[in-house]
Structures are given as C-alpha cells and as structure tokens.
Amino acid sequence: WTNLVVGGPSSSGDGLGTAFATPYTVSVLPDKGVVLGYGEVLATNDSLTLATSQDLIVSLKGGLEKREVVAYDDLTMTMRCSADKGQIDALFARGSPYVTFRVDGVPSLKSDALFTDLQAVDAVTNETMPKACAAYPSCILASMKGDCCPQPSGVKHPCCSGSLGAQTGEVFSVALSNGQAWRLYFSSPVTLTWDSTGAHTTHSFQGVMRAAVVPSNSTKDALMLDAHAEAYATAGSVRVTVDRAKDPDVGIVAFDWQVAYLGSSIPRDELEPALLMLALPHHVDALVADASIGFLDILRYRGGLKGICRAVLGSSWRLAEPLTKIGFTAPRPLKEQKHVDAIKKQVKSDVMRPAGETDKDAAWICFDDWFGNAYWNGKEAARLAGLALVAQEVGDDASFTSAVAQMRSILELWLEARNGDPLVYDATYGGLVTEKGLYDHDADFGNGYYNDHHFHYGYLLHAAAVAVKNDAGFAAKHRRALFALLYDVASPGSGHSLDSVDVDARAFPRARHKDFYAGHSWASGIFFMGQGKAQESSSEAANAYYGAYLLALSLGDVALADWCRTLLAMEVRAARYYYHMPVGGEVYPARFADHNRMVGVLGALSTGAQTWFGPSPIYAHGIQILPVTPATEDLLKPPSFIAEDLAFLDV
Q1: CA triplet 450, 550, 388: central angle to 5 degrees?
Q2: Residues 101-155: tens digit of each pLDDT
Q3: Inter-CA distances, 513 with 72, 104, 357, 454, 602, Å
Q4: Which residues of 328-340 are buried (b: 16+ CB within 10 A; e: fewer)?
C-alpha cells in the first residue's frame, strides 16, 4: 500500500497513487474519498494492465480532509479518513471480497458510472423491495441525460426503472450503468436516498458498513455474500513453523485473521458465520484442506493480474511449503572425469587475477565510482564464492584458496564499513543503507530508499555463507555485521534472537520485501510506482533467501535457517505461478503468455515482458534465471517448462 502514503506524480508526499488489495484497486483521494475499482485485465502481446476504474467511492457527506494509517500488519491495513463532521476507518484485508468501513458520520456513495438502481434487500426473504414504477427500455438512457431518474424526493418520472428514492434496510443492492452489481451491508438499519449520481444516508450513522462487488452479477453470488457478510477481519498475522520432529523439510505458513461481527439482524445459524476470503492460484495449490477451511465453487473473483481466485471459508489457513534440501552444492556430484577436468580448467581461468595482481587486488571494485555499490560488489563476491565451491568440489585447492581470498577482500571491507560507500543503520525505517543512498534517493539503484535490498544483499549473504562455512574465525570476527545484513532482508521479527548476538531482529522490519499474501517479494522501496509495487527478477529474490538460509546454516542457527528456507520456498512457488508461463497455463491470458513465456517485470497493476534495461526476450528470460546456483534447480522446475522455454527462445 506504499502508493497510498508516498509521493505521487504531482507532488511529494501526497499519497494519491493506486494500490491493489485483492480483488480491488484502491486509492484514497481527499476530493473524492476511498475509491474502489474492480477493473478488467487488458491484455496485449507484450503487457497486461489492470484497469483502475472508480466503481465505488465511499466518503462522508461534505468530503474528507485528513488521511492517516492507523494500523497495519502482515495481511491488513487500516486508513483513517476524517473531516470536521466525522471519520471513516477503511479496513483493507488482503483477499477479502468485502471492504469494511467503520463510520462515524453521514456516509456517501458515488461512482464514475451512474447509479441505475438501489434497492433494500429484505434480510429474511433476500428479496428486493417493490419498485416504484414501471420499467421501459428507454429509461436508462433517459437517466443518463438526467431528466428521468430517481431523486431524493422520489421518482421524477413514471418511465424510470428504479426503486424508491429512499430505501430503508441493512442490506442493499446497487446496480451501475457499467453493468456491475454491488452489495452494501450496515450494522444497523439506515435509510439511503439516491439518484443517478450516488447515495447517502439520511442521518448520521455510527457503525460498520461493508461493500462488495458481485463478481458474476448472479443471484447465487449475491446470496453467498449476504450469508457471510457478518464476519470481517480486523487484523491478520502470518506464522511460519517447521516441525522438525514430524517433517524437517516442510514449512507451514499460517494465515490467522482476527474476526469481528457486524452485529446486524441478518439471519444466521446459531454459530457465527465463517469468514469468507479469497485464495490466489498459488494458495489453492498449497492450502492444507482440513476442518478449519472450506472451499466454495462460486464467487469467482479476478485476482487482479494473478488469475481467478477461489473462495475459502475459515479464519485460519495453513499452507504447506516443501523446503529445499539443496545446500551449498548441487544435489548430484560430477561422475565422469572428463567433466571434472574440463571444469577444473575453466575454474582456474575464471579465478586467475590479471598479471601482476594479487588476490587482495580484487578489492578495487569496492572503491570504483560506478561499480562500487552493494549490487556490483555483491555480484563479484558471489561469483568468487561460487567458483570457490566448484573448485572445492573438483579438488582444485589452489583455485579454491585464491577465490576465497579474493572474495574475503571484498566482504571484509563491507562488513567493517571500510569500503568507498559503507553501509549505515537507518533508525527511521530500520535498515542498512549505503551512505550515498541515504542522502541521494537515486544513488545505488535507490538503496537509501530501500529499493532492491534483497537483490543487493542476497549476493553478499551468499558469499558470506561460503566464508563462514570455511572459517569459523570469520564468523566470530564479523558475527554482528553478518546478522545485521541478514536481518535487513530476512528478519523473522519478534520471537527470535540468540543470546550471543547483540543485533535484535526487531530492529528491522519482518522480511522487508516479502508480500506474504502474494507469496513473492516486491523490489520497489518507498517510492511511488505507477504500476503499484513491482519486482523484476524473481531469481534474484529467491537468491536472497537462499543466501540468507546458507548463512544461517553456517552460523548454526537452525530455526533461522528454516525461516529463510520457507521464505525461499514461497518465492519459488510464486515465481512458478506468476513469472513463468508454461504452455496451457491458467493464470495469464493466452495472448500474453504464448507471446512471451516469461514475465519481465511483475507489477501489482501492470505486468510486462520488457525489463527495466531493454525489451529483448533474452533479457526477460535471463533476469528470471540469474544467478545460476544449486538452488536454481528448484526454481526452474518442472523440466518440461525448461524445454518449452528453450524452444520459445529457439536455443
């Protein structure tokens, strides 16, 4: 929801951008209110765009003046919108088909489309109240012209197809001229007056209001929404556990929502109605089907750009993530001596320094004006770490020693803040940023504003893991800096610390870049993004959690290693669903998928086949593969997709 609080295209700090909270686009505009959209996905050969329509606008009569975030957690965010005559708390819960509002004032409803009908729905019979006049085909056209539509004082002309201008109840159906149908729910009876431009209550209302689009505009969907409108999420948390006694290679990711109830007179069973939420395609594949949840075969909402959602009943989800068993080396050793000899020859060539240089001269990159940032330095350190592991596996001791020495010459400068652009701790947002980035948001790929930290530091973490694995003294000397670097991108938050480490995981946001609901990470930091949050390289994101896992393993922290393995598993699963487009895949429209096979940049509001650095297909495919490590094998499964991708690229 960064776009709702940071600077947009017109001025700094305005927060007038659009975010996405499945299944709605969301913006909060002072001159309008809380704007909800349920737009179509527009597909071309090269891009997907989620239409950011203004389908339902919720405000107070007289408008809103101030906005502030008053609560947030892993799965929800609440924004307070206030004015002299009241306030609205808009509660956005990821995956909720309803948007919930706590209202103190006179709520108003508008739309960019016309209101063509608004009717109270009988809470007992689920039938709408009688219409006030006969319906004729010309009525909607006349309504659009403004000369034949319901007014607050009643129906203006008998040709109108509409309900009474004033409707009383707790449940209302709204029809819009764009073809959408919405449901409104109130915690106590209200009277709504309406015309083609919108609606508002006749008196001040203190209570809870909920709004939901009816996805198929069908009676079945509407009735199912009615049946579960009572239960709403007020907060959400994500817990990760690995039961090593039961299965050390499965991570359980638990979504737990705190639930409140509308308190209306809508009939229900003796038991409180179950919370109704929406699962994205990758959730459905991982959800543990136990007694705590139930799947519905109706309410097929679009999940934005991520395919069709599945409706799920239950306030506690359990997702099972198979954890990687791959460590520092590939799962299968080399068998043929000719392969060993060829690789040994190549490693020696790749590790060798230019004539006249020593291993310590590798540190030049730490002071270079262009390459001296965490990204390029991290890449070089990780390259040397990979070569060291390969040299170790093929028995080339000299190349192993040289590669480790060069790698350490880079790492130690960063860990001791002796490089040209050292890392410093930012107490405002809780993170390690480069000194240049702290004072220039464009420097170091936006590092000071938290762009791409997992990309940058993932390489350093991988290299550090190799250094620690091969030298306990390195770990002892740099332990504090190593944990700080790991926590910047993979902090487990509260509940985890080692007595011997004076770096508190709570000094850093929990898994800074990870979107627990989407499964993957977002690379964009505290910048306005026209496409919403975005991430280019799924493979570099996976590499960050792979590097963090290896470092935690080398440091002997099994619980932290399991946490990082679970973050890696989530990233890999999401990449397979939302970055890879296999033949016959069901997430993306065939027009886009068959023309590309790989996503270039994944955004919340738009997704394209191009990368930030060019439109060539090989760029998009390459950026979703590099860096190649032993963990790449997990990322690019199944083998059939690799074959399809190679055929697509004609390689």
Answers
A1: 105
A2: 999 999 999 999 999 999 999 755 566 654 444 333 334 444 444 445 554 454 4
A3: 15, 35, 39, 7, 14
A4: bebeeeeeeeeeb
